[in-house]
Amino acid sequence: xxxxxxxxxxxxxxxxxxxxxxxxxxxxxxxxxxxxxxxxxxxxxxxxxxxxxxxxxxxxxxxxxxxxxxxxxxxxxxxxxxxxxxxxxxxxxxxxxxxxxxxxxxxxxxxxxxxxxxxxxxxxxxxxxxxxxxxxxxxxxxxxxxxxxxxxxxxxxxxxxxxxxxxxxxxxxxxxxxxxxxxxxxxxxxxxxxxxxxxxxxxxxxxxxxxxxxxxxxxxxxxxxxxxxxxxxxxxxxxxxxxxxxxxxxxxxxxxxxxxxxxxxxxxxxxxxxxxxxxxxxxxxxxxxxxxxxxxxxxxxxxxxxxxxxxxxxxxxxxxxxxxxxxxxxxxxxxxxxx
Length: 339
Prior knowledge:
It is a single chain. By secondary structure, this protein is an alpha+beta fold. It folds into 3 domains: 4-115; 144-219; 223-335, no CATH class. Helices cover 38% and strands 17% of the residues. It contains 11 helices and 12 strands. It has helices at 4-22, 61-67, 83-91, 144-155, 164-171, 175-187, 195-217, 248-256, 274-281, 311-320, 324-335; strands at 26-30, 36-41, 45-51, 74-78, 95-98, 103-107, 111-115, 224-228, 244-247, 266-270, 283-285, 291-294. The chain has a 7-stranded mixed β-sheet, sandwiched between helices. Strands 9-10-12-8-11 form a 5-stranded mixed β-sheet. Helix 1 crosses helix 6. The protein starts with a helix and ends with a helix. The relative contact order is 0.09.
């Protein structure tokens, strides 16, 4: 494959498809390289798995000869394996599986599997192939889980060099969410499995992420507006209880070192129950109130003298605001390299 991402995502995609088609658990373990794994099917069938680019001819015969010399039976995984190549592999006793659902597996433990997947379009209608292993196509747009995963990757660039299963374990998303999200990023030329390449792509990834932030993620954070029960606290900045951080204009003032009056809208993320926080700050619900409370999608809320959300969150909240003045603050956050 052309990159670590392509290999790891392809392996996970095909593994999940086979697992569903065979109704058998397939566990994956590490092997010598990023494009190699060991797969355990059921109790006793173990395969040495290697991911290759498009397999349409037999130019890779020499490479396979080296891989089949020892160890468990070889299983070749590819995005698509041509009919000619599948015939050639079966003749040599080499197992294969591709993202189109084609698979041929044989093992001394008594396993024999032959699956025919999706075929390329032909002039005449073809019969529906059965059984078929489903593919994992990239989504049309990022959903809430995808948005949160991209945020994790932006905050922790070293994660991009990890296999799919490690990313899933660290971020607590399912492997299928990771596969689909990374496929989406690659589809939009927004992915690199090299941390340095990911950092270079960061400005483009951030702008793409921010473009969906207000409509996809922010509106799912239970945003609610409040007003002061009597009057606003006399001293600005107002102290917040533990488990709360500022975002939007209030956080931008702190991050940029701007001394100014309280902004017209105060944005607060909090892990506290709303009733408890409203009682602590002396707030009451009000549809157009000057205080906005949201549930955080980032964690943990670390003790911070400025009590600010991560700069990327602040940047996104500023751009999500309809007030023209917030766009200028967002530009200052970006120019300062804080996000």
